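Progress narrative, Year 2. Work on Cytochrome P450 from Streptomyces mashuensis advanced from sequence curation to structure prediction during this period.
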Amino acid sequence: MSSVDGGDGSVAFPFTAPDPVAPPPEYAQLLRDRPVVRARIPSGDPVWLVARHEDVRRVLSDRRFSREAITAPGAPRLLPIAEGSKSVFVMDPPEHTRLRRLVAGAFSPARMRALRPEVERLADELVTAMAKEGPPADLMAGLAGPLPITVICRLLGVPYEDVGRFRAWTDIMLSFAHGRREEVVAARQALSQYLTGLIAAKRARPTDDVLMALIEAADDGDRLDDEELLAFGYTLLGAGYHATTAGLTHAVLALLRRPGELRRLRERPELLPAAVEELLRTSQAGGGLGALRIATEDVELSGVRIAAGEAVLPLINAANRDPAVFTDPDTLCLDRELNPHLSFGHGIHHCLGAQLGRMELQAGLAALLRILPGLRLAVPETELTWSAGLAFARPDALPVTW
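Result:
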């Protein structure tokens, strides 16, 4: 394997893909030859990489693989998660069960359905504004960035003029580049101060938004405390903004590379829900870097013994291309019927905002297909520059014309 470290046979992770929209070649090699392999992450910590769909599902759902353990002092981590974090994203039962129960109502199917017309209207307005200004346009600045962050601001009830600061803080907080710890701490403190003030203001004058619903959420007298509310704010900004921005960008690039499929989708918009699932399956927008876990007992995966206390990283993007599960896994099949992809996770940590993420991808793509029928890249794809060291890979700009 190209990235084997000659010292102990482990591989260096994350892998460097020659094409940022396609999986690194190591994924296919792991699926075929080494489904569980030792690796070293940028911090120097050793981890086990797990590639096969069956094993990844097990790691994501088996409670012997702890999320909470990665918040312990000195624990290996790819993303700068705070020690002792109270985010539902890094908790184990029973605390995870309690928090999930309290926040689930804020993301109920009924609340998400009620939000859909607003998301679709916003996507239409953003793409219409791009069309009026005329080509070329930057799709990152015109749609992929503002759509998710505006929706998150709507959910949190924050003024849109603060979007720039939110973007800057979360860009830093979701960096896994080594040596940025001081920047990460400063960004987290700034965001904490802002959200603390926002929570206090809402308690004094209640509003109609998801953050207010979280403040008021109660179960037999149990409520979220301020630290838990802050942690959920971080999660919303990271997963709801960055993941969706990157996901929409990767989906557009995947379609622009396949003009025939783009035309087919424009002519048959009823395919859009299935197409979004397939674009999620094949997307490289998120490498699953936040899915790291620690084994609490000895566990065997594909014949390899994982010892208690060792870190395990389930490679969701590799599992999504497992030929044992997906026919022609490297082919983008927009009407794929059986599609048990793991892009939103699996088990108790399955993404709370999965329905919202799907909705935004569908709305953004639908608006582009309808309003900009001649959409294409305005520059050769080789001229795109990509932001380095982010958990959710995306280009700095995406110039398009039509």
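The radius of gyration is 21 Å. The longest helix spans residues 226-256.
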